[in-house]
Predict the structure.
Amino acid sequence: MAVLNIENVSKTFGETRVLEDINISMAEGEFLILVGPSGCGKSTLLNMIAGLESVSDGRITLDGRSVNDASPRERNIAMVFQFYALYPNMNVRRNIEFGLKMRGVPKAERAQTVERVARMLQIENLLDRKPAQLSGGQRQRVAIGRALARDPALFLFDEPLSNLDAKLRVEMRTELKQLHQRLGTAMVYVTHDQIEAMTLGDRIAVMHAGRVQQLGTPREIYDDPANRYVAGFIGSPAMNFIECGLTGSGGDTAVRLTGSDTETHLALPQATAAKLAEHGKTRVLMGVRPEHLVPAAEADTRRARVTCAIDVVEPTGPDTYLHTELNDAAVTARCLPSAAPNTGAHIPLAIDAERAVFFDCDTEQRIA
Amino acid sequence: MSDTTPPAGPPTRGMPVRRWLDRWLPKIALVPSGVALLVFVYGFIGWTIWLSMTTSSLLPNNTFAGLRQYEVLFQLDVWWVSVINLAIFGVLYVALCLAIGLFLAILLDQKIRAEGWLRTIYLYPLALSLVVTGVVWKWLLNPGLGLEHFVQSLGWTGFSFDWLVNPDMAIYAVVIAAVWQAAGFVTALFLAGLRGIDTSIIKAAQIDGASLPRVYLSIIIPSLRPVFFSAIILLVSLAIKSFDLVIALTGGGPGYSTWVPAIFMYDFGFNRGQIGLGAAAATLMMAAVALAMLPMLIAELKERRDGRKN
Amino acid sequence: MAARTEDGVARGGPIARCIVYGILMLAAAYFLLPLYVMLTTSFKTLPQIANGSLLSLPSPFSVSAWGDAWSSACTGGDCNGLHHYFWNSVAFTAPAVALSTAFGALNGYVLTKWRFKGSELIFGLLLVGTFVPFQMFLLPMARVLGIIGLDNSVAGLTLVHTVYGIAFTTLFCRNYYVAIPDELVKAARIDGASFISTFRHVILPISTPILMVCVIWQFTQIWNDFLFGVVFTSGDAHPITVALNNLVNTSSTGVKRYNVDMAGAIITALPTLLVYIVAGRYFMRGLTAGAVKG
């Protein structure tokens, strides 16, 4: 049975529609990510699951029970907030046990739970401190502890790591993943950080403009983006988008590419070519990730190559990125640091046509 | 781990009541205040306006009289004395409070050692009842034994300071006491405003070669505009409402040389059995306050609209 | 030559600084003078006042004026001093301060953390209401108090002060609570706390500063009120401010007893003055909050 079921859910604030026809079903133990830019409606959706916002249209069920009209305390959920939201007047112990107290759990049992949670999160030594005496990371641990104490059927996380510094964020990310593996409880996690989404999620819902653009595993989202938005949002550096004309027909359809001088025709895999031909337009938007656009010297010799002028060379350590132009669009290529060319050099780049994806120029939906 | 934790699952019975409470309790909590607001503020405003348009005299009645009471009011000398007094008092009170307040605030902002003490001393009059202020200044300003007598005893035997008993000057005596009460408050407002100014602007101006007075005149004082704004509004509405101080200091006298609209309203509405006239005076006082508030309300609304856009 | 301090703002030379300090001290003397005269006069005897200097210290030191002001001076009709009216003021100030503060906190909590359609309108109406001169309320209120039998009573004054205090306390609390993150209330709701338990366990414990502001502001306003007192009560039910005014304007023997007047004025001013000395910073915060938003 699905832990959480969101069916045709919409949300309007006055005249504005902030969520449109959301459908998500979550399996037991799943780690689901809602990712998108600010204002995409992801936090609103989370608040609706929590019962902090009303549902305008559609139905939300938890454990098979419709909770549209249920208040937060009637839902078997716990939530961790971006700014921790620890009760400033209570020490850590009382923060953690507050939810149990509100539900009338006897004192001895509460103490036991606090001990267990504190041990799990290694915050036993902080129990008598006030939130103001804690560091950001410690506060976030306490906030997680408060959620854990309740042992809910579903955890909700609202950008819990975005207030931590970069290093701590990475550490806590790993810890959260371990925690999920240990507890096996379903989690819904809201973030705007696509790396967090990719690393944590069993499945990711990419949201934009009040809609779920794509719902799938990190692999699916990365390799098979449903539209240009998803393709551009996930991945760093971002996918290259190159508008190009088509030549040939049927299974021989190819794309025309111009680098620094001559035009090249990039042959496509049979299936891709057929889909593009069937789509019928003469121009398409090609999406190529930087790792699939590499100096020809590093690539399979059979691949099509196009000579480009390198404008900027950006070493990042493990990789070096090259900025250049294809069909007058700025693109990023990746190369080995040892083989990095100089700025201004003209070098041939090879494109992995197998991994290229194609979108309609106008609708921006995936064609092939 | 689940064996030690409570069943946090859905309770079933009694839920509808609880859910109903969850939904309605916040609104119910506002009901007493909301009702009080509607009845005792807006209801009474309407009632007073209505009374001002009836023939009510000793007892309120509901005989509609249009603007008759206002016509009568405008023909009463004592009303115009009150209005002119309020104008004199209001202008001087606001101007002097602003001038003294700004001046003292700028001086206090020069990294003064005893600033905390001085601020406390400047501000304490505001904690006093206006009646107390009136009583004290009545003593200080009385010609027989007060300041006049004191200065004469120092040797200036010709010194005369009889404002309190001089019908032409008594309203200025009220200004002295009122300014004494509120100047420290305005100082505190300006000081808070000065503290809010980004000092790097001042530094930049000084590096550009501007003298200190120049910096104050052309940079600091203009940036205190919001403080001027709220101080003026506050002082104007205090001036229009002023009643206690005048009663305690002069009792409205000599004669009715220090009457203000608030005294007029009280005297006609409660002592002379002219409820309609009293109501008309109150209504005009509210209109005056509204007129003074208008610029601020417009600015506030504008700000809100701009704020929503962002 | 302007000397520069560590943060670069010019201070002016030593002579300029002497002038600045001089002016500030002079201003302090101006503000303190009435208090000084009030105190010294209250400890003088009448002959001393008539023959001595305004600024001289009392000698001999006499407390008889204080006794008179407290228990035997004439305040209009009777000659029992101010003590009865002092307790009158206590009797309506205490409950009115408590009630208006409690309602203000509750309203502020609802208006910031449980917003609903129309709650902004209610707040707007409240805000506008704080500007209306009290004169607008006097005639109807006198009538209503008469009808419900609370005219000329301490209970009536309690009601009046509570009602017209709520607008200010709500304003203060609303502006304070609006800065408390909404997440805190959301967390409490997720934790299963109800509307009331969230208020009790989460909001109230962090409200001490603003409750102090409300209490001090309301105490000062209500204790110092004269208008409502003089309009809605007579004789025995007067608050101390009205009684003081009567005391000053009643001279049974025809001789102005300034020492008794001053003692009475200090007795009237003492409660608010003490509050100001003890909790001045909250007092200031209330004033600026009231000035900026109300």
